[in-house]
Amino acid sequence: MWFLTAIGAAAGMPTMAAGDDTIPTAIQSHGRVIVEGTIFDEATGDSLPHVTIQALGTGMATKANADGRYRLVMPRGDYDIKVSHVGYYSNTFHVAAADSLVIRDVRLKSSIIDLGTRRVFTRAYDPAQRIIAEAIARKKDILSQIHDYSFDAYSRLVLANADKPDSENIILITETRSTSFWEQPDKYKEVITARTQSANISAEGNLVGAGAILNFNRNRIEIGSYDIVSPTARDAMDFYNYYLLDTVFIDTRPVFVLELEPKNEYSPLFVGQIQIADSTFDVVGVSVGFSKGVHFPMVDSARYYQSMAKFQNKYWMPIEIGLSGRVTFDVPFPGIPRRMNFSHVASISDYRIDAGLADGTFGEYDMVVDKNADDIDSSAWETLRLLPLTATETRGYERIDSIEHAPKSIYKQALRGVAAAAFLLTVGQPDLFRFNRLEGPYVGIGLRPDEWLPWTRLRMKAGYAFDDKEWQYEFGATYELWHKRRLRAGASIKDEVVHRPTIVSSERYNATFNALFFKIDPFDYFRERGYSIVGFIRPIGHTRMEVEYNDFRQSSKLKTTDYGFFRKSITPRENPAILDGTMRSLSLTLRYDSRNLIDNKGRDFISDAPRYFIIESGIEYASPRFIDNDFDFRRYHMRLRIRTQIGRLGITRFSGYVGSSDGRLPPQRYFVVDFNVPEFFSASGFHTVHETNFAGDRAAMLYAAHDFGPYIFRSSGDRYLKRIPFGLVLYGGTMWTEFHRPEILHDRSVRTAPTAYAEIGFGITNLTPFLMPFNLAMDFTWQLSDYDTRRFTWSFGFNL
User: Fold this and answer.
1) Do both 706 and 672 map to the same domain?
2) CB neighbour list of residue 358: distance below 8 Å, 6 or more residues apart
3) CB neighbours of residue 449 within 10 Å
4) Among 351, 385, 405, residue at a domain's last position
5) Cβ neighbours of residue 265 under 8 Å, at least 6 residues apart?
6) pLDDT value at position 619?
7) pLDDT of 710 strictly over 80
8) Exposed, middle or buried, 427 (CB in 10 Å: 0-12/13-18/19+)?
9) Could you tell me whether strands 597-600 and 339-353 are parallel, antiparallel, or unpaired per DSSP bridges?
10) What is the mean pLDDT of residues 55-72?
11) Is residue 455 in some structural domain?
């Protein structure tokens, strides 16, 4: 899910009590001062949550937590600290340059102000329209004045069982400290400098930062697959109605509280309140949920908030942003609570506005994890935790640590074993277990240790195919020569079963589930023994170039099993032969991917993106004129993938492929448009070809699908259609394959499509909204060409 980026294991850190007068060594050595305490209501004595604490004249501010506790960490110096909250008079106290630790509890006095007729307005004539128009103009003006800024942030994600008491409900906690950079027009980068997490997840899985939460300065907020109009977008008044609910005071300054209401509740928009300062019309706070047009699978009651403070006596900037909600599984999973609350909060401090940013700050990385991010001890972490843990969170750390380090019961060990087996049989690790009609069951071991040697990645795997009755192995290493450009060189040796390259199915697709249970497998296999040498480089941002030399002895293999748990009467198709021989080839591949990346201590991961463009082109050359060889060909290809959003009508995906060759292309290098593979809980490719592959030494393919998303009918305006919860997908595609010299065709059973093969169809999704996370969908597809495959097909399956 888009908001839970932390999955994995490391130790949680203890928290320091608010009244502890011990000064951590890390604070003294770095010349810092900690100011901490608790905020109370003067009249009732109750603690006040989410109060703003700011060092006047600086870029440093923070918010109190839900228990009213706060912590402000600053360089040593003289400061006036102001404590302010909506509906209370502010309080100010002084911190002297000699102080290292200041414990200061603060009591705020409630302000009761008679606002008269300003509190009530009729919706027939509401001044909110004028107020929001001024706020939109003000935002544009302010953003045009700021060239760049940077800030430090502390982020925390807490996942809790909604059905257990507070002392037992916390499932996981992640914490990060980061520095973020922003520059016109909309450049952003975040560097995680320190992180810790509860013992049941790994440090590598903790990528929860401040940048993952929405930025309301944008005109369109990209969240999940939605592109939601900001309440202060240039055209916001075309989508929202605004009503003035109240006038409150912050630091004796009037602030308007506006309600925002979607003009169409079934469009993907926000619902809630926005606070705008009187006279200057700056946005000073946001608290919103989502309209009925926004549907996050398994998530309900999602809320976003943003609190602001004024800096340089001019700019209102966020000092705390948060996202919370509830995840609900309608179908129970062993060991996973049915209902879980999540809370993701980022406390922002130390703004540096228009201080200038170093050249090269931005690039293709949205997030970078510092190599020393996990080398922070518990005392040093206390200087980094800007938002103190609540008592519940402290107990959660202690409970999770004790559970993770306690011996596991036999029942839990068996349950984990069953879960691991189910994972291996479906979308799991093919190096450990796989099944196909050639190998039968394969069992092995695979290791990819990254820590054994510096700058070196090793991969080692070996195993035995029981029906094929042969051992297989691969050993390789890659060494990084230049980190900035990801220049790497590597080599490997292997003797294993591989499959012919395919156009529809991904190289990473694991056919085990469908082959083992339904005898469905789109791949054609052969044996490959030898070595390869490869080099990678990222010459410019978003690009990757790969050069590879292969020296392999390749040989045909026969089908060894007809086994399948279901479809007993069906015989799996034969495994076609290849041209046996020694292939020595040189290939060059260049790829452009518009999506940004995450650098997790040297390992790259792709960031989520609602829109992207990927194009790849390559050439492979094998010839006796180049080096002693049994083959003589040149093979060219180009692949295209596009994901975009057309207006507010949903998501469109395009995929295309063009391939050509000259010389005598062997069967193991044919262009294969493989049949539709019903991947686990999804479907892709051509539906009407059934279990037929089309191949050739030239090929082309184009496929497009548009997903209107769930609740499309609810935006129609018709009162009956609004009740329909289903979604709609339209799709269609065409392909073509042939041999430019049919006389050299090695295997006459190969199926070609010399005239265009085409199909079109539609799907109905979200048929079972009561079975989340499983989403039943039905597809109906018609063939538009004149081939003897299926003229019409329908199917249904589950999408996660």
Assistant:
1) yes
2) none
3) 11
4) 405
5) 271, 291, 292, 293
6) 97
7) no
8) middle
9) unpaired
10) 87
11) yes
The length of the chain in residues reads: 800
Residues 403-450 have pLDDT tens digits of 766 666 666 666 666 666 666 666 668 888 999 999 999 999 998 887
| The predicted structure's pLDDT at residue 775 | 75
Structure confidence at residue 26 (pLDDT): 38
Beta bridge partners of 430: none
DSSP label of 571:
P
Same domain, yes or no: 612 and 722: yes
The structure tokens listed for 324 are 């919370």
Handedness of CA 683, 687, 690, 692 (dihedral sign): negative
- How many beta carbons lie within 10 A of that of residue 340, not counting itself? 21
Bridge partners of 220?
229
The CATH number of the domain where 723 resides is what? 2.40.160.50
Is it the case that residue 114 has pLDDT exceeding 80?
A: no
Q: DSSP secondary-structure letter at 218? A: S
Buried b / exposed e along 55-71 (16+ C-beta atoms within 10 A): beebbbbbbbbbbbbbb
The amino acid at 679: E
Q: pLDDT-derived band of residue 117, with 50, 70 and 90 as boundaries?
A: very low
**DSSP alpha helices (H): ranges in 715-785?**
none
Whether residue 624 has pLDDT greater than 50: yes
For residue 255, the one-letter residue type is V
State the maximum Cα–Cα separation within the chain, in Å, rounded to a whole number.
95
CB half-sphere exposure, 425, CA atoms < 13 A = 10
Q: What is the pLDDT of residues 720-770, one digit of tens each?
A: 776 777 888 999 999 999 998 766 666 667 899 999 999 999 988 878 777
The answer on 327 and 351 residing in a single domain is yes
Are residue 174 and residue 156 in the same domain, yes or no? yes
Residue 371 lies in a domain: yes
Q: Kindly state whether residues 378 and 420 are assigned to the same domain.
A: no
SS3 content of the chain, % helix, strand, coil (to 5): 10, 45, 40
Exposure b/e, 511-545, CB count within 10 A at least 16 = b: bbbbbbeebbbbbbbbbbbbebebbbbbeeebebe
The residue assigned the tokens 């790259």 is: 604
Give the whole-angstrom CA distance, residue 32 versus residue 35: 10
Q: Are 276 and 283 in contact (CB under 8 A)?
A: yes
Opening angle at CA 240, ends 237 and 245, nearest 5? 105
What's the CATH code of the domain at 62? Answer: 2.60.40.1120
Q: Are 181 and 352 in contact (CB under 8 A)?
A: no
CA dihedral 202, 1, 397, 334 (to 10 degrees): -90
Q: What percent of the chain has pLDDT over 70?
A: 85
- Residue 410: inside a domain: no
Among candidate residues 526, 532, 524, the one with its CA nearest the CA of residue 474? 532
From 80, 108, 136, the end of a domain falls on 108
Q: Average pLDDT, whole number, for the chain? A: 83
At 175-184, the pLDDT tens digits run 999 999 998 8
Tell whether 86 and 178 lie within a shared domain.
Answer: no
Query: For residue 270, what are its two tokens?
Result: 């926000």
> How many structural domains compose the chain?
3
Range(s) of the domain holding residue 359:
116-405
- The reply to whether 390 and 427 lie within a common domain is no
CATH number at 122 reads 2.50.20
**218 contacts 235 by C-beta, under 8 angstroms:** no
In a domain, 424, yes or no: yes
pLDDT, tens digit, 9 for 90 and up, residues 515-535: 888 898 999 999 999 999 999
Given a cut of 50, whether residue 475 has pLDDT beyond it is yes
Answer yes or no: is pLDDT of 8 > 80: no
Amino acid in the structure at residue 749: S
Q: What is the mean pLDDT of residues 275-279?
A: 87
What percentage of the chain carries pLDDT values higher than 90?
Answer: 36
Same domain? For 84 and 171 the reply is: no
CB 324 within 8 A of CB 299: no
pLDDT-based confidence at 613, cuts 50/70/90? Answer: very high
